């Protein structure tokens, strides 16, 4: 994930480090306001990738959601020109309740953001 803003230094995920991204296939991205302050805005990425946590179990593909703060400028001493707010997790749909089960949709092909009256709470 790469961003260049004119004269500012570019910022990116770490290259060739499978802990950041491992053979990602991007499906979509969305800019979502978090509050009235634009500095709080987030960017969400939907993608599939080869799961490093499943190594040893064969090659597994997981669907993921990633998040960045829109105003991330990278680190001052460490993570210089790298995202400091990058987070990712596996997409899991769960059935509510004590005996609920997890459902995995690991062949994510599309994502859609449905705007609601409250821009800060869209439906994905």
From TrEMBL:
InterPro entries documented for this protein: Semap_dom, Semap_dom_sf, Semaphorin, WD40/YVTN_repeat-like_dom_sf
A single cellular component GO annotation: plasma membrane
Domain (Sema): residue spans on this chain: 1-124
GO term, biological process aspect, one: axon guidance
Keywords: Glycoprotein
Gene Ontology MF term list: chemorepellent activity; semaphorin receptor binding
PANTHER family found in the cross-reference section: SEMAPHORIN, SEMAPHORIN-3B
Name of the protein in question: Sema domain-containing protein
Source species of the chain: Nothobranchius pienaari
Phylogenetic lineage: Eukaryota, Metazoa, Chordata, Craniata, Vertebrata
